[in-house]
Amino acid sequence: MRIPESRGAASAALFEVFRSVPGTPEAARARAELESAVDEAIEASSAIVRDEDLQLTLFCMYELAYGGIDGVADLEWDPGLIAVRSGIEAAFEAELRTTVPVPPRPEPNGADLAAALFELTAPTPGPSLSRFVAKQATDEQLHEFLVQRSVYTLKEADPHSWAIPRLRGRAKAALVEIQADEYGGGRPQRIHAEIFARTLRGAGLSDEYGHYVDHVPAITLASLNQMSMFGLHRRLRGAVVGHLAAFEMTSALPNRMFGNGFRRLGYDEDVTWYFDEHVEADAVHEQIAARDLAGGLVDSNPELLDDILFGAAASLVVDGWMAEHILSCWTAGRSSLRVPLVVAA
C-alpha cells in the first residue's frame, strides 16, 4: 500500500521518517520529531480510540509487520519505531481496559467460559447496521459499507494468525482449523480476503489493499488496530483468542443480512458470495471458537480467563462503536467516510 495522507503532527512525522534515508541527519531529525509529536498527541488526546492522528500512525506502524508500505525501507524491527509504537499501544490498551465493560467472571473452565461467551454474543433486538443494510441502505451506502470493511477484510484472518505459535494443544488445533477455512483450505480462490476482493470488483470498487485508507475514520482503523495489538503481543494471547471467539460468534446472522441487502439492490453472487460463505462457515466456527479455542485455552491456562473475556468484550464494543458511527451518519443523511466516495470521484 502507498503512504496515506497524514492526519496530524504524529502521522506527518512518521511519514517523514518513512521518506528519509536511514542513517542521515535528516532521518535523525525526523525520528526526534516523531517521538515528540507522538508524546504530545497522546497527552492531548481525549479518546485514543477515535483519534484520527494516532490511529493512523499506529495502523501504518503495524503495516510494517504485514505487507509493508510502498517505497518504505524494512523497518519492522526498528528499535526506535518499536519504542514509539509501544507508547501508543500502552495508551490505547489502557483506554480500552477502562472503557470496555467486561462481563461477569465465570468459573475458569472451558464449559463455563463457553456458556458466558454465548450469553455475551447472543443477538439483541433493536436497530443495527446489519438490519439497516438488509432493509434500507442505498446503493451509495452499500459502497461505503464495503469501503469501511476493506481495510481489514482484504487481509482477513491475518491479525488473529499471530496467535498460532503462542498456543498449544486443543486451543492451537481449534485456531488452525478456523484459520484454514479463512485461508481457503488450500484453494487460493477461496481465501476469504480474495473472495472479498471479488466483491469489491463486482461493486465497481478497487480491490487494491489500502486503497481506501484515506477514506475511513479513526474508529474503523481502531477496530483493526486492536486486533493487531492483541495478536502481536504474546502477553495478550488471551485477548486475541477472546477477540476471535466473539468475532466468529457474531458473524453468521449479520452476514446473512448483509448478503440480503446487496441482493435487494440487484447484485449477483459475485458480490454476495463473500457474505454467503460466512453464513455457512461461521455457524461452524462459532462452536469451535467458543468451546475448543477459548474453552481449550482456559482449560490449559486458567490464568488467561480475564484476558479472554476482555478480548471478547473489546471485539464487540469497538466494532459496535464503528457500526454506531456508520448507522448514525446514514440516518442523519451524511456519509460515514472521512472523504466521501462521490467527492473523491
Structure characterization notes:
This protein has 345 residues and is mostly helical. It has two domains: 9-99, no CATH class; 110-344, Heme Oxygenase, Chain A, CATH 1.20.910. It is built from 16 helices and no strands. Helix 6 packs parallel to helix 13 and helix 9 (169-182) packs antiparallel against helix 14. The longest helix has 32 residues, at 269-300. It starts with 8 loop residues before the first helix and ends with a helix. The mean pLDDT is 96.
Kindly list the characteristics that best describe this protein.
single chain; 345 residues; mainly alpha; Heme Oxygenase, Chain A; globular
Q: Superfamily at the CATH H level of the largest domain? A: Heme oxygenase-like
Low-confidence stretches: none
Major β-sheet profile: none
CATH class type of the largest domain: Mainly Alpha
CA-based gyration radius? 20 Å
CATH topology of the largest domain: Heme Oxygenase, Chain A
Brief summary:
By secondary structure, the chain is mainly alpha-helical. The protein has helices at residues 9-19, 25-44, 52-63, 79-99, 110-120, 129-135, 139-153, 158-161, 169-182, 192-202, 218-232, 237-249, 252-264, 269-300, 305-331, 341-344.
Task: Describe how the helices and strands are arranged.
Elements: H1 9-19, H2 25-44, H3 52-63, H4 79-99, H5 110-120, H6 129-135, H7 139-153, H8 158-161, H9 169-182, H10 192-202, H11 218-232, H12 237-249, H13 252-264, H14 269-300, H15 305-331, H16 341-344
